Amino acid sequence: MTPLGTGLAIEPQLWALVFVMVRIGAAFIAAPVFGAMTMPVIVRVSLSGAIGVLVLGTHSIVPPAQIFALTTFLSVAAEALVGFALGFVLQIAFAAPMVASELIGTSMGIGFASAIDPQNGRSTPALGQFFSMLITLLFLAVNGHLVLVELIVKSYDALPPGAAWLGVDQVKNIALFGGYTFLAGLLLALPVGFLLLCLNLIVGMISRAAPSLNLFAVGMPASLAVGVVALALAMPAMGDYLLVIIDQALAAAGTLVLG
User: Terminal CA-to-CA distance of the chain, rounded, Å?
Assistant: First the structure.
């Protein structure tokens, strides 16, 4: 056993593993699927440890010599920042279906229908839960979780410990990618939203032509029926665009760590 500068004796290999697990664990906390509320903490820690062993076997990681030192705290903070940034970029893309569900649900008249989302533990629209499960299944189907693990491992080449601070350009790219959430959400809701907008225009013209009609008794069921039919017809195209969103998110995460 090799004593460190603080007088605390710990196996050097164990300290190196814990140091490597900081970046991996931070990425898993912020990333979708791995960061879900339903994911047990023991599973997250076990995966972080297993990937940490892989990183130590393929990279020469030299952890800080002293545990309780300012340079060590700064190094740990830099490692956590890189991990959080990787997971946060993917989380930004996974928020796009929530934006689309708000637009579609409000137009259909089911915006009030909400429940607890098991992914994040917050109350979300029922349509948003459907889109969230759909993009999660597509993410797993295209092996997005394996691509995330590969990016984490490759990040130790591009951003080695000790030089892992994100630059201004990288932080700027994360902020600019946040605008993609609203663009993708709008494009995802466009097919169904356009049909519902046309329906609202028709109902508005009918209300002007025949003011005596009770449009509240007709408009709500019509909006709901048209919305359900439009969702069924547009689902193949929406599924393809969800794959585009996943591809853009993985590309942005790769650009973040690999340049």
Answer: 39
